[in-house]
Amino acid sequence: MSAPDLATTLAAAKASGRKILIPYVMAGMTDDWIEVIHAAFAAGADAVEVGLPFSDPIIDGEVIQRAAIASLDRGTTAPSVLAQLAAEVFAGPIVVMTYFNVISHLGIERFCGLAKEAGVTGAIIADLSLEEIGPWANVGDAAGIATVMLVAPSTPVSRTKLIAERSRGFVYAVARMGVTGVRSELGGDMESVVGKIKEASTLPVCVGIGVSSPEQATSVAAVADGVIVGSALVQRLLDGQGPQGAAEFIASLRQAI
Amino acid sequence: MTSQMGDPGQLGHFGSFGGQFVPEPLMPACIELEAAFRDAWSDPAFVDEYRSILRDYGGRPTPLTYCKRLSEELGIELWLKREDLAHTGSHKINNVIGQALLTKRMGKKRMIAETGAGQHGVASATAAALLGLECVVYMGEVDTVRQVLNVFRMELLGARVVPVTSGSRTLKDAVNEAMRTWVAEVDTTHYCLGSVMGPHPFPWMVREFQRIVGDEAFGQCNQAFGVPDYVVACVGGGSNAAGMFAGFVDSTAKLVGVEAAGGAAISAGSPGVLHGMRSQLIQDDMGQIQEAHSISAGLDYPGIGPEHAHLAEIGRAEYVSAHDQEVLDALQRLASREGIIPALESAHALAWVLRAAGKEIPAGSRVVINLSGRGDKDVAQVLSILKGESA
Question: Which chain A positions have a beta carbon within 8 Å of B29's beta carbon?
């Protein structure tokens, strides 16, 4: 039924100096995925990223792929996820993450209508480039859905400015070149990506893709405004750790930042 | 007059299709590649090297063959553009020579490629061997089993073949895996996409590297009889058809693309976004991509190149489909009447002509089929199917 607004919540966190923590959950991957979201907020998440599964997720590594297949096999659809979200009252904002075909096939207007009813106030659309954002952007803005854009280590400075200008809510800094997944090391690109975005924008900068441990979260929080953790949490859920295991892991990340 | 298959512009839109739907980490590489191709393709030295290799190494120009016996049987004039005679056995060599040269020109030393049946993988491995590049080919695990000889061919040519175990373990997933790898290795590696699909500039670039087929055929037709009434090609992603059509699109010839009935993206699909492009896709009512099924692995792709979707939308080309059984019949008929064993993919184009001759194709029409590849790779499969039939 409702959830706080993404952009407002994260701007306030940044202003107060609180580091932002955004865990990722694949919608519909288990029976208790809604409870995992509640548990995440209780354990210190500032927002939760909710994945809408797609059959061909080209930026996702093995763990998220497996969660997507599990979810699709359980009959999950974008409307079913949004209907489930609409029935809940969340303590923090919800940002959906998906691929453009899931949205465009439903129809951009219809998707935004359902998302708005569900209390969704942010969207990360992995394969919607700055070049192709036109048909989506105005409809998303009008529905109060902040379009979060990605900046990668490969993104030139001039392009970073354009992306940061078009981004709403926060800017997603891709920590390293590669797909989502647990990595033992973050590599040397993270700081320069964050620096590039900070030069171009006053929006909060949150780092994702490859961030998986409390130690890595600590090093990210030292330079960025926030941390996004996906595969490491989804792996625990695939292992059957449920809301309680999720809460313990998220609490350990909270403590680390 | 500008061509109906011209420059799609910096964003690569063909009407409402095409574009660049890729995650941001890959966008700079797409932009770099588009600039590099634009620059190379307007550089006479590059074009000359590309043409020289295809002539001296690739066996171009390939002939245009008149099919005397089949023409008499069908009551039409049937001609074949013989891409089956190009090096590595199909038109795929045209594209990979272009992209391998471009890889070197961009200062990269490594190519990755996806493959379904193995034709593009073998061609990529060949071009990499010729030009001294490292080559890794992603192939669905299911296809590595179905096409075990092609896996060995690629290995003989010095490439590494990586079986893809995600998703349906076929061509669509090989593309996913190649793109995922490209994200991580984009600094050193070029993704040598095998068809007129994917994000811009691939659909345009691959069509340009394949237009040598259509340009040659147009000249050969002109010399033999003039402009044909029909130009027919099979379509999976659609690279042989795009190259062929490019030579005839501004003429009076009717253009016909033949899809596999189990993967007919134009007639059974709907608009959507996959693998970096907006095109016609086979998908369910929630936009999840479906698997394509046909007798030929090379046509088992749930989408089609965006320019084909556009040509269909504006009515410049017509897209039809052929069933597995009529494809098998067509293969046997061409073999027994003309002494040419076509690839199962190419046999789709012939299957439609056999069905349509004297009906949609009026008697006496001049018909040119792009015979995109030879059937050696399919002989074992055809044998087992025909044996099964007679048993």
Answer: 154
